[in-house]
Specification:
The complex is a heterodimer of chains A (170) and B (504). In chain A, the strands form 3 sheets. Chain A has a 9-stranded antiparallel β-sheet. Chain A has a 4-stranded antiparallel β-sheet with strand order 10-17-15-12, with no helix packed on it. Chain A has 2 domains: 85 residues, Glycoprotein, Type 4 Pilin (2-Layer Sandwich), CATH 3.30.700.30; 72 residues, OB fold (Dihydrolipoamide Acetyltransferase, E2P) (Beta Barrel). Chain A is mostly beta strands and 170 residues long. Chain A is built from 1 helix and 17 strands. Chain B is α+β, with helices and mostly antiparallel strands. Chain B has 5 domains: 99 residues, Rossmann fold; 155 residues, D-amino Acid Aminotransferase, Chain A, domain 1 (2-Layer Sandwich), CATH 3.30.470.20; 61 residues, Dna Ligase, domain 1, CATH 3.30.1490.20; 97 residues, D-amino Acid Aminotransferase, Chain A, domain 1; 44 residues. Helices cover 38% and strands 23% of the residues of chain B. Chain B is built from 17 helices and 22 strands. In chain B, strand 9 and strand 10 form a beta hairpin. The longest helix of chain B has 28 residues. Classes of the chains: A mainly beta (170), B alpha+beta (504). At the A-B interface, strand 1, strand 2, strand 3, strand 5 and strand 6 of A face strand 17, helix 13 and helix 16 of B.
């Protein structure tokens, strides 16, 4: 699988292309087209240990409020946006609607107060999926694309953290 | 000794007290508000009772509910911890009325020493130096100026009704007096309709140094030496250490004797802290007394080898202190950092949320006092203190090296913490040479922080791979809700991991 990773850190922004190819229990990894010697393990929940050409790293993963992930390692922090390969391949200039399977995340910590759709429902781009209340404000979470609600991960009345997955739209 | 102790607090300090009770073989009772049902102190408790909704004034500050739990569970002592009701004379009184021992000073001692003005008057009476200044407000410029000359510049003029820096002027020299006077008194008049001002000696870059005392009910009062808490952000302590880099054995003796004198005069019993400001010429001035256990007590515990909470309980039970102050010699150096759930990039705004991953610090010389665990949601309702990381070393240099090393090991993700602030402070040359004062950190934070470009570059490739790998895991987790073929079962992985964790 090919991923386009957009990184932001103290060193600025950069774009890297990572290819992960399953090889038995591990992956063959290439970075920006060059094969690299990398070993990845999920060492603990939300903690990825990586040995890259002998150098050891550990990243602690958390969803970021604005989407994407926060990666923490020692004193450093990275924000990463990973493009789903299908979305990436299918991106058309000027297209407003997202493509491929979309993960719907909570933009802020709050509480799901109403579900507007059921699993399996057909939705239009921009259609409301659910209402999340945060800081006494009700926010409608909308579908980024036309498609089908593949799964709802949230239930009514459930408190959610920023970045929690609420639903998947295929 | 006590039959059972009620711990009237939450978070890390409730855990700290619970541990002391357990070591002494005394059963304890914890209390919790609705949002604290899953807090660590409740998980570790012998007995636990809900005392109401999340807001502290409806739970942890409800004297009636706490006394009710104490009565129902047949507790004969209450430890208040710090914060909440720890310095509330009404709570100490309610305990006395219910014939439950309050582990702390009497309500009278609290009233006499706890308030800033009463404490200052007591200090004057027993010849403990206070910041020189006028007791009564003065409206006459010439009178104030002659007093200022006698006191020596710089001085500070403070409006009687002042607050928030209004009607306050620092007067650097005699020449500047008349213009400063004009500004201060007119500002005071415009803001509060009162021209009168207090005159106080202005301490330039003072240090905050406090003396830990212990007093038993048999008249023995000892000083356990000093703690330096000069690294403060807006008057909140951020780093504490013992011993102080500027305190000489002579100054330590003088400050200790002053603190003991004050405690005796106030009829103080149990653990307490006398706070002082110390100027560049090593003059010390009384600030206030904290009539409770301090957040930073572990620093003193690490250098003296004493357990202050256990001593508090023993003193409250009427036991004699088993040592004299002459026998207490601080050993090595200890330093504590307070890790808060707050965002250093967003003006240290408190950040509640769920702790998704956590790797703790351990190893030589490291102590971690905390009330958090992975998977716990930090509630919004209380002080966002997560952990106190304390390092001990043979020298200050070793303590700092251990603290830095431990901060690199310690990670919490899912919520924002102020860990990066400590990494920055612990690398500052001024801090390393001990050249600090109470406004040092505020000045440091006003300077832009150099970004760690080189370090970020070095980890960039690995970060990109980690992000892609994580996306892969997240996607696979979803597709069938099961572990991908060929990968070991997650149950198995978790089982192996917990086996590993169990190794001594």
């Amino acid at each position: 699988m090919k991923f386009e990773v957009l990184l932001e850190s103290a060193a600025g922004r950069s774009k890297r292309v990572v290819e992960l190819e399953k090889e038995g229990a591990t992956y063959k990894v290439s970075l920006d087209g060059q094969p690299v010697d990398a070993d990845m393990v999920l060492a603990a929940p939300n903690a990825i240990s990586i040995i890259l050409n002998g150098a050891a790293f550990e990243f602690h993963m958390a969803p970021a409020a604005e989407g994407g992930y926060l990666l923490q390692t020692g004193a450093l922090e990275f924000h990463a946006t990973v493009c789903d390969p299908r979305v990436w391949r299918g991106r058309k200039p000027g297209a407003h609607e997202a493509e491929g399977r979309q993960r719907i995340i909570a933009p802020m910590p709050g509480k799901v107060i109403r579900l507007l759709v059921k699993t399996g429902d057909e939705v239009e781009a921009g259609q409301g999926l659910m209402v999340v209340e945060a800081m006494k404000m009700q926010n409608e979470i909308r579908s980024p694309k036309k498609g089908k609600v593949e799964r709802l991960e949230a239930t009514e009345g459930q408190p959610v953290n920023a970045g929690d997955t609420l639903a998947w739209v295929e | 000794m006590f039959r059972k102790i009620l711990i009237a607090n939450r978070g890390e300090i409730a855990v700290r007290i619970l541990r002391a009770c357990r070591e002494m073989g005394i059963p304890s009772v914890c209390v919790f508000s609705e949002v604290d049902r899953t807090s660590l102190h409740v998980r570790l408790a012998d007995e636990a009772y809900g005392i109401g909704p999340a807001p502290s004034r409806e739970s942890y500050l409800r004297i009636d509910r706490l006394m009710d739990v104490a009565r129902r569970t047949r507790c004969d002592a209450i430890h208040p911890g710090y914060g909440f009701l720890a310095e509330n004379p009404a709570f100490a009184r309610a305990c006395a009325e219910a014939a439950v021992t309050f582990i702390g000073p009497s309500a009278e001692a609290m009233e006499m020493m706890g308030s800033k003005t009463a404490g200052k008057q007591l200090a004057r009476r027993c010849e403990v130096p206070t910041v020189p200044g006028t007791d009564n407000p003065i409206a006459d410029a010439e009178e104030v100026q002659s007093l200022a000359r006698a006191m020596g510049y710089p001085v500070v003029l403070k409006a009687i009704a002042g607050g928030g820096g209004k009607g306050m002027r620092v007067v650097p020299s005699d020449e500047a007096f008349s213009s400063c006077w004009r500004d201060a008194s007119s500002e005071a008049f415009n803001a509060f309709g009162d021209r009168r001002v207090f005159l106080e000696k202005y301490l330039e870059s003072p240090r905050h140094i406090e003396i830990q005392i212990l007093a038993d009910s048999h008249g023995r009062v000892v000083s356990l030496g000093e703690r330096e808490c000069s690294v403060q952000r807006r008057h909140q302590k951020v780093i504490e250490e013992a011993p102080s880099t500027i305190v000489t054995p002579e100054l330590r003796r003088k400050m200790g004797e002053a603190a003991v004198r004050l405690a005796r005069a106030g009829g103080y019993v149990n653990a307490g802290t006398v706070e002082f400001l110390v100027d560049a010429s090593l003059n010390f001035y009384f600030l206030e007394v904290n009539t409770r256990l301090q957040v930073e007590h572990p620093v003193t515990e690490q250098v003296t080898g004493l357990d202050l909470v256990k001593l508090q309980i023993a003193i409250a039970a009427g036991l004699r202190l088993p040592f004299a102050w002459e026998t207490i010699t601080p050993r090595g150096h200890a330093m504590e950092v307070r890790l808060y759930a707050e965002d250093p990039d967003n003006n240290f705004f408190p950040c509640a949320g769920k702790i998704l991953a956590r790797r703790t610090a351990a190893g030589p010389g490291i102590r971690l006092d905390e009330g958090v665990y992975r998977g716990w949601t930090v509630p919004l309702e209380y002080d966002p203190l997560l952990s106190k990381l304390i390092a001990w070393g043979n020298s200050r240099e070793e303590a700092i090296a251990r603290l830095r090393r431990a901060l690199d090991e310690y990670t919490i993700s899912g919520i924002r913490t102020n860990i990066s602030l400590f990494r920055r402070i612990l690398a500052e040359p001024e801090f390393l040479s001990g050249d600090i004062h109470t406004t040092w950190l505020d000045q440091l934070l006003a300077r832009p922080r150099p970004p760690a470009v080189a370090a970020a570059r070095a980890s960039e490739a690995a970060a990109a791979i980690a992000a892609a790998y994580w996306e892969c895991i997240e996607a696979t987790n979803f597709v069938d809700g099961r572990v991908p073929a060929g990968a070991p079962s997650r149950w198995k992985l978790d089982g192996r991991r917990s086996q590993l964790d169990r190794q001594p």
